[in-house]
Design goal:
mainly beta; 1,4-Beta-D-Glucan Cellobiohydrolase I, Chain A; 14-stranded mixed β-sheet; 3-stranded mixed β-sheet
Length: 436
């Protein structure tokens, strides 16, 4: 599902097989962010952005022949997972020319479709975290996401001797969907059992997936937004096998070590339809600031959201769903929401808020992305989902104003190739230090 991911590998508490090619120099763009100790007392820091390994050119070692073309592997170079790591190299990236990624000062712009010289790329991944965002150019069917995952800070370089690329080349990705579309996991190829996608010419599903805790700070377009913690019983990155992975890519969505659904707060879904969108309380036709606070620890942790726009601080909308209280994510809120909506509740089985708090305390990697959805057309974010539900009687099925016919990748890619999202002015610090 993730078409392209950008890691900001030096933010927050982040520290420090795949062979490396030499045809394209890997030059990381700098991006500044701020570490705050109190309101008005922030220090600028400089980090780097790096494109995820999954979307890089992968070619035969010492040559130019592709190891992966479209959604199929080169069966000569990649007879199995281990030989693929030995025979193939991932190369550096032309961030702007190929991927439409532009970093300048404290901002990062991700362009949806970029036509390069050799290819067309589609898409571009107790404290307070704040950023400015412009989603005015994101229509139905697109998701400009900013989130944290518990991947290894070095991309798995120390753990796996066959991984020669590491964080510099964006290796080691994982999330709570335990994605099986990754070309390399744990320093080996994901060739064995690979099945090309039937509707995505560039993707497929392999025999392994890569799991870890995920905190979705921001999944949004100009119509809808959601903040969602995804807990895992195994917090750090781990490799899974086949349909036992669970998540979007497996026959049994709930078979794995992670909670694929999470416990989301989407204002529209929680009954307030005039809060977020163009011309609404949070006006998405203009830039605004998103503030996320993590208050307390373990199962008592609360995830609280504010917005700042036009000089005004806007509290998150409160739920109007009968039996569901509040405007923040807590264990009580999740208990009530899952009961009211009749949704499967796997978060507690995977450690709930306690494991999410532990993942945050351990340090996570920031991912910024822009993607379209070949699995469900992004209807789970901005429309009625599942489609056969009636929002008037099936609580929680209404998620945004988009039509159920919207969001098909073929339509989004042809009609909105210039769609963009801009993230800027990232800050992290103690409560109430980064805004106001």
């Amino acid at each position: 599902m993730y078409r392209s991911l950008v890691f900001a590998a030096s933010l927050l508490s982040v520290a420090r097989g795949q062979l490396v090619g030499t045809e394209q120099t890997e030059t990381h763009s700098g991006m500044t962010w701020q570490s705050c100790t109190a309101k008005g007392s922030c220090t600028s820091k400089t980090g780097k952005v790096v494109i995820d390994a999954n979307w890089r050119w992968l070619h035969v070692k010492g040559g130019y022949n592709n190891c992966y073309t479209g959604n199929e592997w080169n069966t000569t170079a990649c007879k199995d997972n281990k030989s693929c790591a030995t025979n193939c190299a991932m190369d550096g990236a032309d961030y702007k020319g190929t991927y439409g990624i532009t970093a300048s000062g404290n901002s990062l712009q991700l362009k949806f479709i970029t036509k390069g010289s050799y290819s067309t790329n589609i898409g571009s991944r107790n404290s307070e975290f704040t950023f400015d965002v412009d989603v005015s150019g994101l229509p139905c069917g697109l998701n400009g996401a900013l989130y944290f995952v518990s991947m290894d800070a070095d991309g798995g370089l120390k753990k796996y001797s066959t991984n020669k690329a590491g964080a510099k080349y964006g290796t080691g990705y994982c999330d709570a969907q335990c994605p099986r579309d990754l070309k390399f996991i744990n320093g080996e190829g994901n060739v064995e059992g690979w099945a090309p996608s039937v509707n995505d010419a560039n993707a497929g599903v392999g025999g392994h997936g890569s799991c870890c805790a995920e905190m979705d700070i921001w999944e949004a377009n100009s119509v809808s937004t959601a903040v969602t913690p995804h807990s895992c019983s195994t917090i750090e990155q781990s490799r899974c096998n086949g349909d036992d992975c669970g998540g979007t890519y497996s026959a049994d969505r709930y078979a794995g070590v992670c909670d694929p659904d999470g416990c989301d707060f989407n204002s529209y879904r929680m009954g307030v339809k005039d809060f977020y969108g163009k011309g609404k309380t949070v006006d998405t036709s203009k830039k605004f600031t998103v503030v996320t606070q993590f208050i307390g620890t373990c199962n008592a942790m609360e995830i609280k959201r504010f917005y700042v726009q036009g000089g005004k601080t806007i509290a998150n909308s409160a739920s109007t769903i009968p039996g569901v209280d509040g405007n923040s994510i807590t264990t009580k809120f999740c208990d009530q929401q899952k009961a009211a909506f009749g949704d499967k509740y796997t978060s507690k089985d995977k450690g709930g808020m306690a494991n999410m708090a532990k993942a945050l305390a351990n340090g996570m990697v920031l991912v910024m992305s822009l993607w379209d959805d070949y699995y469900s057309n992004m209807l789970w974010l901005d429309s009625r989902y599942p489609r056969d539900k009636n929002p008037d009687t099936d609580l929680g099925s209404g998620r945004g104003d988009c039509e159920t016919t919207s969001g098909a990748p073929a339509d989004v890619e042809s009609q909105h190739p210039d769609a963009t999202v801009i993230y800027s002015n990232i800050k992290s610090g103690p409560l109430n230090s980064t805004f106001g």
